[in-house]
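**Reference record**
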Amino acid sequence: MNKRLFQLVFAIIFLILSISMGVTSQASEINFNVKAILPENQRSKEISYFDLRVVPGETQTLSVELTNDTEEDVTVYASSNSAITNDNGIVDYSYNDAKKDSSAVFTFSEIAKMPKEIILPKKSTKIVECVVEIPKESFDGHVLGGLYFEQKEDKEEKSQGALAVGNRFSYVVGVLISETDQEIKPELALNDVKATQITGNNAVIMNIQNKKAAMIKKLQLDATLYYENETKPRYENHQESLTMAPNTNFNYKIDLKEQPFVAGNYTVKIKANDGYKDWSWERKFEIKEKEAKKYNATAINLPPDQRHSFPWVVVMSIGVGLLIVILGIIYYFNRKMKKEQKKYEELKNSLDKSEE
């Protein structure tokens, strides 16, 4: 029995390792390379991305070398994307349809244009150009974006369903644009605070905005959530080494984990530090009964008894209403019967008097 058990365990481990190695080797394959050709106005030749000092009103052409060393043609999708701050607190260049932040005068995707699809023949090299139209009105600070290149999936990879997620290969070449050496310091603001659900998990999100054209390279955030008039926080979150792109915002979250939403009034307190300056905010908000029930019913990490808890309040309200109606009916018929009884007695008395 021990020998058979050992063989079974060994077989399971071998199977898991085989699958892991197969997925890893497949996910590491990419059929083209990207290299930025740095122009004369590049501020530093020691880096591999574009860090450009530009002039208002001029046109800047960015050249990128794409190489395909394989024996098959490769199709590459390309886009010039504005840098955003994603909800993990990381600068992200992969969104070509990112919403423009209210504090931004212009974004990189608005001024940069490049081919959307590139065919790389086998064993070939191609130069791809991105044309950047610098606005005539000068600006201080930085505009951040990226040249994004993604390999097109073939039909076989696409048919693999969930495994195909690992087959979306891409490169990003960062682009940092500035016109002056004027130092711009970040300015953080707290926008909306609300209850929501993220990938099936109940959470409270706080929208943090960087309103200036300045990078934040090391942001620390502390958030605590208080219920009603309680002095001890019910939930909290602490994170360090977050980054923010210029003129962007993201949703910082407090995860309720395995706890349901409870309707009522809340206060959230947030502290932020970028290594140079402190910010603090306090905001009150309400989670309504209907909202709490909606999210609790669909939360994937709540026990079944907390997802669909029996609505005792509703049942009691209906019961009280029915009791009032029944008592009202009894009261009505009781008065009516007393009136009829009184009429009957008056009629009887009048008949007795007439007989006399």
